[in-house]
Amino acid sequence: MAAAVAAALVSTTNDIPGYRIVRPMGVVRGITVRSRSIVGNLGAALQTLVGGNITIYTELCEKARGEAFDLMLRHAAAMGANAVVGMRYDANEVAEGVTEVLAYGTAVQVEPGA
């Protein structure tokens, strides 16, 4: 089984302070597709009447991003990487009420030292 990639070794920049990249390994990604339930839509509609943060959708987005991030880390570990640089999120609506969330970046092997 591949070693896990620590979340602390994921960066949105192209480097990780205190580490040097010794081997780039390619693009990695984690994708999840989520839909809003009828109950969730009803609850969110009620929250919009009051205004402010729509917590039902916030929780859904956080869960989807977390799942996509974890899948990306597993993909990187399966490739033999111990870090990910250039990490980004993307989201697209693939059908009405159905959203794809993608976490992606470049898998790398790093070692301590600048």
Automatic annotation (TrEMBL):
Pfam families documented for this protein: YbjQ_1 (PF01906)
Family annotation (InterPro entries): UPF0145_dom_sf, UPF0145_YbjQ-like
Top-rank lineage group of the source organism: Bacteria
SUPFAM superfamilies per the UniProt record, alphabetical: YbjQ-like
The family this protein is said to belong to: Belongs to the UPF0145 family.
The protein's name in its UniProt record: UPF0145 protein ISP17_08775
Taxonomic source organism: Dyella ginsengisoli
